[in-house]
């Protein structure tokens, strides 16, 4: 629709002199925050890494999935926004609570109902992907001993990580305490990019300290270095622009530190504590009808 609008000559607001007519003085902090919010729409690029165990021939199919999906999604999102700008002024875009719905009402007439349905389907697709991948993240963390062991269990017949899915659901409900969507995006976006940067920095350190480790998927170090530079700009100036919001996100993340020391670092726990954890695991196991996968069960028995 964006291409059709441009072909019809409806590109008044795409011309720089009109697009930036009411543009305020540039603020590097707000620009960084805009990048942080805008990147939320593309956050699915990282979810593919969580499901490598679910892929057939992941060393071939994971890069293929990334190189196909990211350009395709970027193309769709960019042209969707081009379509919005051809039909709506910047003031209308900012005033609208549902840009796609307003766009449909202006251009599609009686068929405007297509837009909210399309947005809903896109949202459901995103939720489906997040559930599938995030639960695998908790599953893998529990398997490594960084989360309660019950999260590493799967259903006896369907082989789905039911406890990890329920944990994801509870975490999501807690996020809904925040009523402002943009504040929530800033919370989550800041935390996500903080983890991305630390992970990529760890990759560079490992390439330097342990160059002989087997790496089936290996990339040139130039790419993570460029990403780290962008990451530093994004986080530093976002924190400078919105210190309360980003600081709150950082504080939420740091609440995991005492939990880590209590559950993982502290080895000599009293018997009553271990008995309580065992009881909680047993009750959860019976409620969800789950067991350890065979490989995990063998590893626990050997230890």
UniProtKB/TrEMBL annotation:
Any one GO molecular function term: L-amino acid transmembrane transporter activity
Coiled-coil features, chain-numbered ranges: none
Keyword list, A-Z: Membrane, Transmembrane, Transmembrane helix
Matching Pfam families: AA_permease_2
Membrane topology of this protein: Multi-pass membrane protein
Keyword Transmembrane included in the entry's annotation: yes
Compartments, as annotated in UniProt: Membrane
InterPro entries referenced in this protein's UniProt entry, alphabetically: AA/rel_permease1 (IPR002293), AminoAcid_Transporter (IPR050598)
Transmembrane segments: 28-45, 66-87, 107-127, 159-178, 184-208, 220-241, 247-266
Domain of life: Eukaryota
Listed GO CC annotations: membrane
Protein name: Solute carrier family 7 member 8
Species in which this protein is naturally found: Microcebus murinus
């Amino acid at each position: 629709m964006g291409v059709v609008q441009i072909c019809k000559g409806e590109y008044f607001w795409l011309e720089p002199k009109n697009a930036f007519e009411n543009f305020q003085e540039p603020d590097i902090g707000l620009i960084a925050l805009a990048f942080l919010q805008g990147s939320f729409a593309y956050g699915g690029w990282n979810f593919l890494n969580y499901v490598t165990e679910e892929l057939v021939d992941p060393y071939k199919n994971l890069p293929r999935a990334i190189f196909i999906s990211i350009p395709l999604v970027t193309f769709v999102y960019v042209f969707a926004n081009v379509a919005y700008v051809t039909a709506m002024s910047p003031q209308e875009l900012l005033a609208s609570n549902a840009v796609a719905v307003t766009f449909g009402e202006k251009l599609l007439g009686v068929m405007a109902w297509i837009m909210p349905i399309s947005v809903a389907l896109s949202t459901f697709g995103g939720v489906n992907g997040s559930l599938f991948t995030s639960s695998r993240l908790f599953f893998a963390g529990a398997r490594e001993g960084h989360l309660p062991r019950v999260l590493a269990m799967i259903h006896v017949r369907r082989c789905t990580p039911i406890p990890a899915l329920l944990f994801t659901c509870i975490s999501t409900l807690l996020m809904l305490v925040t009523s402002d969507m943009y504040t929530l995006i800033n919370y989550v976006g800041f935390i996500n990019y903080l983890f991305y940067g630390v992970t990529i920095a760890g990759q560079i350190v490992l390439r330097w300290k342990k160059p002989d480790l087997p790496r089936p998927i290996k990339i040139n170090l130039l790419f993570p270095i460029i990403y780290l530079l962008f990451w530093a700009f994004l986080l530093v100036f976002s924190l400078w622009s919105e210190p309360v919001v980003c600081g709150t996100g950082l504080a939420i993340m740091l609440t995991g530190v005492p939990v880590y020391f209590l559950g993982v670092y502290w080895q000599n726990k009293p018997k009553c504590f271990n008995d309580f954890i065992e009881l909680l695991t047993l009750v959860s196991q019976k409620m969800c009808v789950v067991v350890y996968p065979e490989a995990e069960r063998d590893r626990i028995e050997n230890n």
